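Hi all, long-time lurker, first post. I run a small reading group and we've been trying to get comfortable going from sequence to structure in the token notation. Rather than ask abstract questions, I figured I'd post a concrete chain and ask someone more experienced to write out its structure so we can walk through it together at our next meeting. Sequence below, copied exactly:
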Amino acid sequence: MIIVCGSLRLVPGQRDIFIARSLPAMRAARQASGCIDFSVSPDPLDPDRANVLERWESHAALQAFRGGGPDDDLSALITGYDMGEYNVAP
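-- Answer (accepted) --
Happy to help. Here is the structure in token form:
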């Protein structure tokens, strides 16, 4: 299993817009082959941070979904990130 988790720093005051614009990607990921879970959620303590948690059956499944990453509308709202990708053996 592959776990991708971390946080995104967002343009101040734009977190709710970022989360709303992330909904289509979350829906698509959850329907993608090999996706176990995919969530982008607001951080409860920091109004300019979103937390990301993804679980995939394999690296190939993750790469097949990921493609080029977030579109330009989402990327414009991200000012920084701290993300990790972890391979978890059964």
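A couple of things your group might point at:
Residues 15-31 form the longest helix (17 residues).
The chain has a mean pLDDT of 93.
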